[in-house]
């Protein structure tokens, strides 16, 4: 699908049925500590179905992050519609398996997903809402060119409020 020229060679590919195992690996406690903890198997299966369906719904895209040249699936990245402060925008999120973190893979995957969202021309803004206590995800936002707007209360998982940073990227400025 899309590759990033700088840093590690990463490709993002549309979410596929066989990616359920990847989703289970991304559900580890160390991967979900800023997101309310691991989900149940039932929640994972429901998330997998949402990921499979989102591209056909026209409301976003989910991708597997593939490290090249090995073609090893190492994470996920995506974007989806949400209403934020009265405006329909895209929200983005990502995760890279622990053994692959710290190598620029997430930043490369986010950059590729940003280009995909911008190419759609559907929404002007893409937001990311990393937890205040998640320095690596906040650093990825800075590196990817997002602008910091403010701290905010954000509901995730549903029914739980968490303190986040609101980062925004103007997709019309993406080349």
TrEMBL record:
Sequence ranges assigned to domain N-acetyltransferase in this UniProt record: 10-167
Keywords, ordered alphabetically? Acyltransferase, Transferase
Q: What top-level branch of life does the organism fall under?
A: Bacteria
Q: Which Pfam families match?
A: Acetyltransf_3
InterPro entries xref list: Acyl_CoA_acyltransferase, GNAT_dom, N-acetyltransferase
- Give the record's GO CC terms: cytoplasm
**Family under the similarity heading:** Belongs to the acetyltransferase family. RimJ subfamily.
Q: What is this protein called?
A: RimJ/RimL family protein N-acetyltransferase
* Native source species: Kitasatospora atroaurantiaca
